[in-house]
Specification:
A hairpin with a 4-residue loop joins strand 1 and strand 2. Strands 1, 2, 3, 4, 5, 6, 7 and 8 form an 8-stranded mixed β-sheet that branches. The protein is α+β, with helices and mostly antiparallel strands. The protein has helices at residues 79-97, 111-127; strands at 14-16, 21-28, 31-39, 49-56, 64-65, 101-103, 135-139, 145-149. The N and C termini lie far apart (33 Å).
Length: 162
C-alpha cells in the first residue's frame, strides 16, 4: 500500500431514504465509483452502518456491480486505489456522521470471493491504522469485519467530549 494514492480524499455524502442511507460518488478513470452507507436499524440514533461500493456494470447499463470483471472501468483502474479511496470515504463518513460501528465486510458473487474481499479490507485497514486510531478493527467469528469506535470515557463511565 506504500506509495498508493486514493482517487479522492474528500466526499459529499448525499442523504436519501429518510436518513436510512447515504451515498457519495467519485469519478475514476471515466467510471463512477458509488459508495453507500446504510443504517442497520433505521429507527435508532445509535445504530450501526454498513459500507458498500459499486462500479457501473458493463453488461447492464444503468446498473452497478461489485465485481471487477463486470465493471465498466478502464483496465488501468487500480482495485487497490479503489480500496484506499473507500478507506478515506469510510473515515470521512465516520467523522461527518459520528458513526460508532461500521460493517466493512466484503461482498461478492460467492462466499469465497466475499471472504477474499474481507481479507483485503482487513489488510487495508491494518496497514492504515493511523487513519482509524479511534476505532478497533474487529473480525467476528462469522467472518464479518467491523470498525468499532473506541469509547472515550472518564472514571464515571460517561463519554468524554473533550
Amino acid at each position: 500500500m506504500t506509495g498508493l494514492t486514493p482517487y479522492a480524499t474528500s466526499f459529499q455524502w448525499r442523504l436519501f431514504s429518510n436518513s436510512h442511507m447515504y451515498d457519495t460518488k467519485v469519478t475514476i478513470d471515466d467510471a463512477i465509483l458509488n459508495m453507500t452507507m446504510v443504517r442497520d436499524d433505521p429507527y435508532s440514533e445509535t445504530s450501526d452502518w454498513t459500507f458498500s461500493f459499486f462500479l457501473p456494470n458493463k453488461h447492464n447499463p444503468g446498473r452497478f456491480t461489485y465485481n471487477k470483471l463486470d465493471a465498466d472501468a478502464s483496465a488501468d483502474t487500480s482495485y487497490l486505489r479503489i480500496m484506499l479511496t473507500c478507506a478515506y470515504a469510510i473515515r470521512d463518513f465516520a467523522d461527518t456522521h459520528d458513526a460508532n460501528q461500521i460493517d466493512v465486510s466484503g461482498f461478492d458473487s460467492g462466499a469465497g470471493k466475499s471472504a477474499q474481499k474481507t481479507r483485503i479490507y482487513h489488510a487495508l485497514l491494518n496497514s492504515n491504522k493511523h487513519m482509524f486510531a479511534d476505532f478497533d478493527i474487529q473480525k467476528s467469528f462469522t467472518g464479518h469485519l467491523f470498525l468499532i469506535r473506541k469509547q472515550q470515557a472518564d472514571a464515571t463511565g460517561i463519554r468524554d467530549e473533550s
